[in-house]
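In line with agreed milestones, work has continued on tokenised descriptions of protein folds. One protein thus recorded appears below exactly as we store it:

>
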Amino acid sequence: MEKDTFTLRPDDEFIELIKLLKLKNIAQSGGHAKMMVEEGSVKVNGELEFRKRKKLRNGDIVEMAALTIKIQE
């Protein structure tokens, strides 16, 4: 499984799930990111996540297929 990190900007408390998927180029568009979440392709902290605008904070772990992303400050 590939592991990656995403560092929050100093002014940001969180990033929304679909924005993370777009920024990391996992989804080609916002619509594709929403579809991935709606289809149950994404886990946050080990549980399936269906909220597209889920706020990811420091320490959260996002998993899809063979990729894990840890959110950090």
In short: Residues 2-72 form a domain with the Structural Genomics Hypothetical 15.5 Kd Protein In mrcA-pckA Intergenic Region; Chain A fold (CATH 3.10.290.10).
